[in-house]
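Appendix B.2, paired examples.
Example (i):
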Amino acid sequence: MKQLVMKTNIDNKIPDFFTTLEDILPSLRENSDEDIKYFIKLLPTAIKYKIVPILYELHVYGNTRRINSKLFGNRILSKKQKIIYFIRFCLFSIKSLLFYRKIISQNKIIANVGCERNISKFYLEAMEKLAKKNNSIVISFNVPCTFKYLFNKHIFYYYSYNFIKSEKKLTLNRISNVILDEIKKNSSLQDLSYIKNNICVNVIFLFREYLKSEKFLNKFRSNIFGLIQDYDYSYNKYIYVELFKKYNISTFSFQHAINFYNHLYPYIYSDHYLVWGQQELNRAREKNSSLNISIVGYPKGLFNVEVYNNGKRNILYFLSSHDFATSQTEARQLDYVNLIIEKIKNSLLNYDEQLELILIPHPQDNPSLYKGNKVKICNKNIESLLSQAKLLVFEDTTAIFNYMLMEIPILYINDENNNDPLLNKEFNSISSFYNGEDMNEKIDNSMKLKVDLEKRKKHFEYFFRSANQEDYINQIHNKIKRN
């Protein structure tokens, strides 16, 4: 089955921008030391995660939208979250100091996975079991996601603060200015002060990450099984991959989300890419036919949701992200979403029974983004809402698969250009709304349509091949042992 590859107009501009950057930055290498020279080679791809949203946002909105931290993919933590993170950081750093000799002497699996999502937590648990099988330890390059690993003898955190000398900082500032000049050429934005500060901060951060990795590899590279990450296509994760490959250490990347679109992050840089199902294998192979890619499945249990019937009176609308430019396409902008919301609200007026539309924002979005719609917004206790759901409405979000195997009618909203990244035309397992159709008729038919769980299961398994935890870990273990 051919995987849909969607593009936007900005796709044509991004490669030109980064080709230019790759041509310009080497001119700064001449009077630089070896560290800076190799870092400059890696920077264009690493910084893409921060630059692409700026170019994309300016392309779509021009100067009409305020440039803020969301453009840089920065996750804003609450005061409570910051305190908890700082405590975890301190405690895990102390643990690493206390067991420094053990870290030096034992075989190691290096893990760098996110921390908030269930799949990332599962990956870290899988790394712990791999370590037990291989009589080794796991070194996490980011602070472990839970305090339970504080007393775990197989998981440790590695931190290294690297002081940057003033002459190197001057070179890094020059690099930031080169990037800023290129952004100016690709936009009409006049005030770039906010962008400039963020570019400088990110370039220095990435250089520190580069130094941290180099220092670690120089000390420990003789007994490392491999580097395992939940993605590798940008920012510090890309730097880790290239440095580990430079020292001939195997690198592995797990799939971390369903890629509905290819407009921003199409590439995989690790030696091995481990995916959930056929959909991602096809998508990745389209970009790189020689990629070493394997289907290892998706762990059973992460989609299990128990729902008790408590009266059907809700329409739940699960939104894709509209607060981060990296998650958007030109065919699914916020204006179109607001139009769909209004159409659904108007349709519900035709029903004698009182049906309530409830918006479920994407976890990374600020719910206030949708307050102007005058609709109830909820992003907690979703299970209790599901027990009262008469219809689930979805955009491009992995959440659709969380509930696809439940006997609740589903309506998928195709984007404004009627693209079908969910491949529902092939599977025909759920209802789809296409731009230009009658929303009243579509909602009515969707709620009356009998749920065909067999069709839904085939659709689901194209994206997610089930695997129990033990089989999942054994597959990864065998791949690491072979390499």
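Example (ii):
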Amino acid sequence: MSKICTTKSLCVAAIAFSLVCAAYSSGQASSQYTPRQLEALAERIGHTYWTASADKHNLTVLSAPAPNASSFRPAEDESFEITQLVGQKTQNVFYKVKFLSGKEGFISPDNFLEELNLTILTVDPKADEKREAAAAAEQKGFVMSGHQLVIFGLCPACAGRDAGEG
């Protein structure tokens, strides 16, 4: 009987030790970044992404670079740019983002990676639609230039001159 108790005690102690080690290492891994990891995270600065909704997933953006900050959900199909990587010295790292609407917020790198390709897209979801609209406008004599619509045709002052009147 004492042999069984000793074996059970060792098993329980080994399991407890394993759980403590696993909890400690996962806690360390999620909050500590190596210089190379920070460099890799910083490579996203200046890139534009778009929001989308997916089943039971919505991107959550924080109002401040802190896990307990208030949050908001951006509109679907809204673009945002990663403008900064903040908190590198404190290892409390967040992407600072600016939405097309002008609203700014913060996304943790872990949340960004979890949501990439689910609710964060690397390509404008309406790119094909915009391209088709630009092609149709061009065929009708309109040319899209940025956010401006330029109409090619005769200006009223030149109409008479082009008709041979002047």
